[in-house]
Write a structure and sequence with these properties.
The chain is mainly alpha-helical. The protein is 48% helix and 6% strand. The chain has two domains: 3-81; 85-158, no CATH class. It has a two-stranded antiparallel ribbon with strand order 1-2. β1 (144-148) and β2 (154-158) form a beta hairpin. The chain is elongated, with a radius of gyration of 24 Å. 18% of the residues are buried. The model is unreliable at 1-5, 126-131, 135-144 and 158-166 (pLDDT under 50).
């Protein structure tokens, strides 16, 4: 790392950089993290030398290449354990947010959150027009979604469901 007065990283710092890149952090984000954690300034280009998926990382030691591969595999596998990766958790969060919005008398936000919960249940992505101006979403299904919390309060969305505030 001797370019432009940059300090050479020790083994622990090199592992930190490699593992951060393996977790899909950008070189700029990694450089910022290195500065925060180790008080060492690195350029984005210096960080890229630790990424074996980039041309700049061609000279990376095999030990660090193996670490990158292992860290990336573990990171990808671990995303299945993240709460937001699970529909039930996302629906619980949306319910809590909708209840708070309703309690704050923000019925517009509550309605948006209920609509988002409905789309979550239906597996519908955001309804965006394609180049022909038509919707990319599948045909609308007649579906009513009711989300209940532990106390029995519920929110509904879908065809024929009352809107918040009705």
């Amino acid at each position: 790392m001797g370019d432009k007065g940059e300090k050479k990283l020790n083994a622990a710092q090199q592992r930190f950089v490699v593992q951060s890149l393996a977790r899909f952090m950008s070189p700029s984000e990694v450089a910022t993290a290195v500065k925060e954690h180790f008080e060492i300034e690195l350029t984005r280009q210096a960080v890229e030398r630790y990424d074996p998926t980039k041309a700049a990382g061609d000279g990376l030691k095999q030990e660090l290449r193996d670490l990158f591969t292992k860290a990336r595999e573990e990171y990808i596998a671990g995303t299945n354990n993240a709460p937001l990766a699970h529909k039930a958790y996302r629906l619980e969060v949306l319910l809590r947010l909708a209840e708070k919005a309703e309690a704050m008398k923000n019925l517009n936000l509550a309605g948006q959150l209920v609509k988002q919960a409905k789309e979550e249940v239906e597996g519908v992505a955001a309804d965006t027009p394609n180049s022909n101006g038509k919707s990319n979403s599948p045909a609308q299904a007649n579906l009513t979604v009711t989300i209940k919390n532990e106390s029995g309060a519920s929110l509904q969305a879908g065809s024929g469901a009352p809107k918040p505030g009705d």
